[in-house]
Model the fold of this input.
Amino acid sequence: MSLVTIQELGIEEGKALIKIARQAIMKKLGLRSSLEYKESEILNKKGLAFVTLETLLGETTTLRGCIGYVEAVAPLKEIVRNAAIAAAFSDPRFPPLTKDEIGNIIIEVTVLTKPEEVIVNERKDLPKAIKVGRDGLIVEKGILYSGLLLPQVPMEYCWDEETFLAETCLKAGLNPDCWLDNSIRIKRFEGIIFREKYPSSDEILMIKPSDVKCKKFDFSE
Done:
């Protein structure tokens, strides 16, 4: 079974993936769902994806769960279904999602390319080998330490490439300068984002990571 590429995916596939994710969560909550989506053979190809849940609070959103898979072990639609359930009920940072919350949840699905290791002659050149707005990162040390940040994350937080590497090291539970260590594996991947405009919206946004707006957080407030 071949691996789905992000170039194969359009807005119709995105709509289907969002509905698959929402349907899976609602079923787990014991809620009825009349969501229908157009079947596509593309979604039967193996794929890699993350599902992110955000709670809508007025004009802003806050993270409510994010889980995904970077191994192509199942068809993309199954990966998204499993990731949605895990993001809603098994993200260790949050309590399980409740029926009362589902009406305020925005669902985002990021489909990924297969991660590839970044090879450089000198570790100090790593920031030049990656690109904010295109790449997501994985930092690995042995089997105990691993951290992943999606390609939209550095865009949201206005990071440059060196900060992105440091933050991914921290996500892995390592020192921020871990990327300078030759024993650390750095992998990159690309992605395409599908996102509900508002909770349960039929209008689905298809977003390139490079188009994600910097939030410019004001920490003085």
